[in-house]
Design goal:
Blueprint: H1 6-70, H2 73-143
Helix pairs in contact: 1-2
Length: 144
C-alpha cells in the first residue's frame, strides 16, 4: 500500500472522531440509566419523609388528646416542643426537597441535550466520512 493521501488521512481522523463521539453518547446513555435508578431512590426517600411528617403529626394529635383528658402540664410542654420541631423540620426538608427536584430537572435536561447533540454529531461525521470516501474513490478512479 502506498503513502497515505491527505483525503485518506482526513477520513481516518474523521472516523476516529466518530468513535469518540459514540463513546460519549453511550456513556451519557449509561448515565441516564443510573439517573433513572436514582430517581426511583429519590421517590422512595420523598415518600419516607412524607410518611415521617404524617406520623409526627399523628403523634402530636395523640399527645394533645392525652393532655385534654389528663391535664398534665409536662405533656403540654412536650406537645409544644414536638410541634416546634415538626414545623422547623417540615420547613427545612421541604425547601431542600424542592431544590433537589429543581436541580434534578436541570441535570436531566442537560443530559438529554448532550445525548441528542452526540447523536447529531455522529450522524454529521458519518455524512462527512461518506463525502470523503466518495472523493477518495473519484480521485483513485481518475488516476487509474
Amino acid at each position: 500500500m502506498g503513502k497515505p493521501t491527505l483525503p485518506s488521512m482526513e477520513l481516518e481522523r474523521s472516523m476516529n472522531l466518530q468513535v469518540h463521539v459514540m463513546t460519549v453518547e453511550e456513556t451519557l446513555r449509561h448515565s441516564a440509566v443510573i439517573d433513572k435508578l436514582d430517581d426511583e431512590r429519590r421517590t422512595k426517600l420523598h415518600n419516607l419523609i412524607k410518611w415521617a411528617k404524617e406520623m409526627q403529626i399523628s403523634f402530636i394529635r395523640d399527645l394533645q388528646e392525652i393532655y385534654k383528658s389528663t391535664g398534665l402540664e409536662s405533656l403540654r410542654k412536650e406537645i409544644e416542643k414536638q410541634s416546634k420541631f415538626l414545623k422547623q423540620f417540615t420547613k427545612s426538608i421541604d425547601a431542600i426537597l424542592k431544590q433537589e427536584l429543581e436541580l434534578e430537572a436541570l441535570d436531566d435536561n442537560t443530559r438529554e441535550y448532550l445525548i441528542d447533540y452526540a447523536v447529531m454529531t455522529r450522524e454529521n461525521l458519518k455524512e462527512d466520512n461518506s463525502r470523503l470516501e466518495r472523493e477518495i474513490i473519484l480521485r483513485k478512479v481518475s488516476y487509474d
